[in-house]
Design a protein that fits this description.
The chain is an alpha/beta fold. The chain has twelve helices and 14 strands. Helices cover about 30% and strands about 25% of the residues. Strand 13 and strand 14 form a beta hairpin.
Amino acid sequence: MNKESVNNQIIISIKNLCKHFPVKNVWGTDVALVKALDGVDLEIESGKTFGIVGESGCGKTTLMRTLLRLVEPTSGSVVLSEEITKNQFLSNSLEELTSEELRSFRRQIGVVFQDPMGALNPRMLIKDIVSEPLVIHGKTKEIREKVISLLNNVGLGEEHMYRYPHEFSGGQRQRIVIARALALDPKILVLDEPTSALDVSVQAQILNLLNDLQKKYELTYIFISHDLSVIEYMCDRLAVMYLGKVVEEADTEELFSNPQHPYTKALLSATPNFEKHKEKIMILGDVPSPITYLDQTKAELATEITEQERLEIKTIEGKGIDYIVRSSLNEVLPLKEVGTSHYARVK
């Protein structure tokens, strides 16, 4: 994908990123690969919110872990801008950073996880949880004042410092996680389903808080979510993933108003709303396995309609329901430009 940025600085550029996990037989020999990421190309603009959406198993979290270099990529590269490297690294490629450079890079990326209770140590006081990144990186000067400031930024106060995580509601716990993520003054926040475990009313509060913090600190967000209504509200640009590949990428408004890939159309049709006559598109068939066998004589992803899909089609015939079948999504098409900064894998 060849894209030019006009007046927008790219903070992270992902080029043909692949992550393959080996599958071994009982003798320990590699017999197949799980292609969790299979040639991902993305460019993330500084100060904007980039959304990544797709069903479970599509590679969203693996992409996040690879960006943090918690797992090493099989191939491809992640290129960092001068805003991140400050011309102090020997290389601007993430995979080539030394351990000291990687430590410096991770100070500039905060992470907010899906389950706030699981992300907090139940045995630690809030003051210790929020200050932990500061202690680890040796920034202990005026640490108490820094913790109070962080808590105030997310709508909490000094009176919350000496409590434990179980004494807070889900929304308050997520605020604590956000405060900890901001402790080292990062330039990027990776938000992995930050509102999926919260009530709807609390979700709105957290999303508004994130918007306020982004403006205040000029943060760049990488926002991972299943919830398309949240994505539409939060994101400037959006990539749709399916089986380790980006099947469509565009500015959020353009993608919602003019989806091109059939999988994107099906996802958007599944979004709950109050339109009684809105077109619904069903996805028929089972999610195919991402495993690719090293022995080419083994079965590969079928591109023809399966018997199960035929049966499912038969059950909805005559009911006026539009559908797509999983097998039709298995054909790998090149990602091409279908509009201004709009890319999709279509014929």
